[in-house]
Design a protein that fits this description.
This protein is α+β, with helices and mostly antiparallel strands. Helices cover 25% and strands 38% of the residues. It is elongated, with a radius of gyration of 40 Å.
């Protein structure tokens, strides 16, 4: 009975395993060293036979294949799951340095044949004999210089025994706002790295906007550097966007590392040979600084330049071209590409006269990598036509600086023609009619509600008898003239107010201060909430930008340092206040997109409020 149960159990496992999809996979190290044996394995999740391995060109066959298999069965909540794995292992050794591709292998499962994946292996040269300290320093310096002249990756480092850190930058000569990738890479040989301590000193990265990259999943790999093989890993990466031209010096960084170094003392017993013994050692590592040469953007920026530096494309679409008055229409602009995506300004849309406009909705879908930022920026512009007719939305222009061509490029959307039909409540003249009258059905009988006053016994006194006013006297003329004067005065006042309310720019100008105060009040409520820190900086930036847009009557899309400075100077504002205004906008943008710049929310709130108060006193 036991034999029967065992046979049935294994048969069930085999059948359930056989029902799974066949997975046949080849695995090998990504980097190996000449003359050092390594293992390559083929695994399959079914019982198989007749493995046909490829020719291992460029590698010496040492041993194999060694076959091993494993299976497991588990029951969870009454559900049985099982797995099976068959492994073939080869021991190989590289003959020479280079990059080699091992073709796929073939194996038979049941009556079918399956093919594995191919494998690419990078073979590093053997370690070169160690040079003297002076020669090693010279070769390191020469390697750093040659690396800095490379078009893709530059770097420098100073070897300190068996461990050192190199500073790697993607390029050292860039334009303003062009992304630079900076990384710190750790090299270890003859020891085992344990961890970094908290004693780290990074550069301030002044004059750069920053975007830190995720390096938590970075893997150790073999790398041959200056003739010696190391275990290397990139443990810190950051994107930098230079904000000014000229030579910018990035200071050195300092790190403290804990190593496990094998004991070199002579073993005293067999157990010392069997169990490796290590000693902890602490090393202070210095990653060299680097100089970035930043070129200014060329003169002659197009009027539609949106601050973009990189490579972009633009698409547009409109929700409808045939609609009625008072129905909303949405124009969607999508900017795609790679560059300083988060710093782009929204393109300006020249809506026809009579369209009521609203703040655009912006959606960013951006990914960051060592190559920079890439993705899409979608801007939805909403407007409502208030009168019937045929209108044309001019082409929307978006200009950017192309770093590859070294010139400004302008993208244009197509023109859109809108056919607006008359909507409900609109008269032929295009104005809006408000019906305010009473129908006959609204009149009610009031006879039962009227109480008459009996005048039978009423005898007016002498004081209650009104004096007779002669026709043509000054009192009579006063009774006629006063209502006319009041009516004329009310007509003038209300006509002026109607005209002012019809001018949306004037309305926004008058309400700029109150709107800014509301935004500051909202920002103050977010200031103490750590999880809403980004929303606080966004609200501060919107408050300052909207206030300046309304007060200076400049569209938000056209607001930049140049337009703000020139407009305030034309209005006689002092240079100190102009500089303070630009600093507030710059700090708000820095804090929003680069929180590590260290802008304090309380100080930024106080400076923004002070800027608005002083501009109000100047009576723009």
């Amino acid at each position: 009975m036991r034999r029967i149960l065992t046979i049935v159990l294994f048969a069930a496992i085999a059948l359930s395993t056989f029902g799974e999809d066949v997975v046949f996979r080849a695995q090998a190290p990504a980097q190996v060293i000449v003359g050092r044996p390594f293992q390559m394995s083929y695994t399959v999740n079914q019982r198989a036979k007749d493995l046909r391995a490829p020719e291992f060109d460029g590698f010496d066959y040492i041993a194999g294949p060694y076959t091993s298999q494993s299976s497991s069965t588990s029951f969870v909540n009454g559900k049985r799951t099982s797995s099976f794995q068959l492994t073939y292992t080869y021991t190989l050794m590289a003959q020479k340095a280079g990059t080699f591709s091992i073709p796929p292998a073939v194996i038979t499962v049941g009556n079918a044949q399956y093919t594995s994946n191919g494998v690419k292996i990078t073979v590093l040269p053997e370690d070169q004999p160690q040079q003297s300290s002076q020669q090693s320093a010279g070769s390191n310096q020469q390697a750093a210089v040659s690396k800095q002249q490379a078009p893709q990756t530059t770097g420098s480092g100073r070897e300190e025994g068996n461990i050192f850190v190199r500073t790697l930058v993607s390029r050292t000569k860039v334009y303003e706002q062009e992304a630079i990738s900076l990384s710190y890479r750790l090299y270890v040989a003859g020891a085992e790295f344990k961890q970094f301590t908290n004693n780290m000193t990074f550069p301030d990265f002044t004059s750069f906007l920053q975007q830190k990259l995720n390096t938590q999943d970075a893997q150790w790999e073999l790398e041959n550097y200056n003739g010696r093989n190391y275990q290397a890993v990139t443990f810190y990466s950051i994107l930098l966007y230079p904000q000014k031209s000229g030579d910018i010096q990035i200071d050195p960084a300092m790190f403290e590392a804990v190593l496990l170094v094998p004991n070199q003392a002579r073993s005293r017993s067999i157990f010392d040979d069997f169990f490796n013994s290590y000693t902890s050692a602490t090393r202070t590592l210095r990653a060299p600084g680097v100089t970035i040469h930043v070129q200014p953007l060329p003169t002659g920026k197009p009027a539609s330049f949106a601050g973009g530096v990189g490579k972009f494309t633009m698409d547009s679409k409109i929700s409808a071209t045939d609609l009625k008055a008072n129905e909303a229409v949405t124009l969607t602009i999508t900017v795609r590409g790679a560059g300083n995506m988060k710093l782009l300004k929204n393109p300006a849309v020249d809506w026809p006269e009579g369209f009521e406009q609203y703040d655009p909705k912006v959606t960013n879908n951006v990914k960051t990598s060592t190559g920079g930022m890439s993705g899409t920026r979608t801007i939805e512009y909403l407007a409502i036509p208030r009168a019937a007719g045929e209108y044309t939305i001019p082409a929307v222009e978006f200009s950017y600086f192309d770093t590859e061509k070294g010139t400004y490029q302008t993208l244009r959307s197509p023109e859109y023609t809108l056919h607006i039909a008359r909507g409900a409540g609109e008269q032929d003249g295009g104005g809006t009619v408000v019906n305010n009258y009473v129908t006959k059905e609204d009149i009610k009988e009031l006879g039962s509600d009227i109480r008459y006053i009996s005048a039978a016994d009423f005898k007016p006194s002498e004081r209650s008898v009104a004096k007779k006013v002669d026709f043509g006297s000054w009192q009579m003329w006063l009774l006629y003239v006063c209502p006319l004067l009041v009516a004329l005065l009310l007509f003038v006042l209300f006509r002026k107010r109607i005209r002012e309310n019809a001018d949306l720019t004037r309305v926004r100008y008058r309400q700029a201060n109150s709107v800014a105060r509301k935004r500051l009040k909202k920002a103050k409520s977010l200031m103490s909430q750590t999880e809403h820190k980004e929303q606080f900086f966004e609200e501060i930036e919107r408050a300052a930008m909207q206030y300046l847009s309304d007060r200076l009557t400049i569209p938000t899309a056209d607001l930049n340092k140049e337009t703000i400075t020139s407009t305030l100077r034309a209005k006689g504002i002092s240079e100190t206040l102009i500089e303070q205004t630009n600093n507030v906008l710059q700090d708000a943008a820095f804090a929003r997109y680069a929180p590590s710049m260290g802008v304090k929310p309380e100080e930024l709130y106080k400076l923004t409020e002070q800027m608005i108060n002083e501009l109000e006193e100047c009576k723009l």
